[in-house]
Amino acid sequence: MSRLRISGLFRDAFEAQIALFDEAVRAIAARDEPDDWNPLAASARGLEGEALRRATARIYGTALGEYGAGVTERVERGAWDARSDLGLDYLAASATAYGKGLDGFADGEGFAARVKDADAFLHQQDHAEIDLLDSLDYAAYEGGFAAAADRLGNTPALYHTDISRPDAPKVRTLVEEIARIVRGRAANPAWIEGMMRHGYRGAAEVTRSVEGLFAFAATLPARLDRQFDVLFDATLGNETVDSFLREENPASARGHGRAFRRGHPPRSVAPAPEQRGTLK
Fold it and tell me: Is the pTM of this model over 0.70?
């Protein structure tokens, strides 16, 4: 049975869609069908009142008035000791249930159970103007879920779906999508050259991709060493690009270096010996 982890924006803007999905869940739970055919109905059978309502909760998000996945701030500050810390933050920020009679109901235990039992996680991207390294939000939601599942002893499959063209949707594993964006955009010399024409702001955009990769490295169980190597060679490992970052946006250059340095202790990147001097 599908579960939804909705954003604060979705919660605020699409009340009708939330109600419709919840109604469908409750209808399925009420059907008289064999347990192996309808496990949702099996889990709700014999329950009444609040117990039944909690057993059929399948829509979760942040508390009313709050936004985000609870992960971004600590990732930006590098303020955690283990990936499980970020997983706990994601669970805490996602523990409010939505649906008929539930809106604003704190159900941390219920959400944790849904994450622990999940076979797969699917995140949809419905426009092509940005990608998953353009913002830390993608790592917060996708990586945050992975960190939470790992904390709970689960390793569900992770997928990123591009539905920017409804007639030609693309489904890739999350790691495949990260590699595709690193090679196709973030480490692409043509894209970097284009950013270099925009001076200060262009330098910030180049660094943002490295920070996005670092956020995924901090939250995902998969290692991303190769992607860091590719990005390093295209940025700090390239004398022209390195000089551009330092001259046009020193703060961005420092952030770039921090992202590479931090990528190794929490999780993923181990720079080659010839790279380490550049990161100081």
Answer: yes
